Amino acid sequence: MDLGIKGKWALVGGASKGLGYGCAQALAKEGVNVVIVARGKDALLDAATRLKAESPGVEVIAVPVDITTPEGRAAIFAERKDYDIVVTNAGGPPPGDFRSWDREAWIKAVDANMLTPIELIKATIDGMAARGYGRIVNITSSAVKAPIDILGLSNGARSGLTGFVAGLARNPQIASKGVTLNNLLPGAFDTDRLKATMVGAAQKTGKPIEAIADARRQTVPAQRFGTPDEFGAICAFLCSVHAGYINGQNVLADGGAYPGTY
């Protein structure tokens, strides 16, 4: 299927590895020029090299900045002002007991996982509407639908973003101009973040990491973890011309782990 987005420009956050890289990779393979962002310079430059090798002819610009800061966002928009596609993605806040989180921890979580995506949307959505095409995909978390007690910082911040997007996506002045906003909710995917979580669990319980991983897989009906490649493919479809009637939705990719009907 031709997704109809060849030649467009995308901004992808957290794109040096994991789910962000999977999204950038899938878009680049469709002929989309990408501006990729992450804090780790070496990893990001390596990602850019791989993207260029896999998708010759596509422009790849790497901007190694912290997208959650005003300075980082200014550097991104100094490279390019207008985007047809924006994939927001920032690392989730750490797990823990809510009793130990002070105001600073909450502000940091909200800033990274709610306010930063809103700032990126604010900076790009009017241009999208004026040009008659735009796709915004926010990578959030399956915890938005099924909150996890130790991920309270993430639950709160990402739920705030979800509510904001739900309202904005249904604004006729935006939706009627060919612009969609959707959230993509990953469950257990084979990423460094999942591995770090399992390493922490192994250290806490004294169990082998293999046992922790096997137990985690058993909670997923698919009996496996997702891959960044398949996550990226979902993202690319949501960014395509074929997804113009999918708007304001929370698209859950979790191997069937969510137990609810709706």
From TrEMBL:
InterPro entries for this protein: NAD(P)-bd_dom_sf, SDR, SDR_fam
Lineage: superkingdom: Bacteria
Pfam families named in the record: adh_short_C2 (PF13561)
Coiled-coil intervals: none
Database matches in Gene3D superfamilies: NAD(P)-binding Rossmann-like Domain
Family: Belongs to the short-chain dehydrogenases/reductases (SDR) family.
Protein name as catalogued: Short-chain dehydrogenase/reductase SDR
Annotated organism of origin: Hylemonella gracilis ATCC 19624
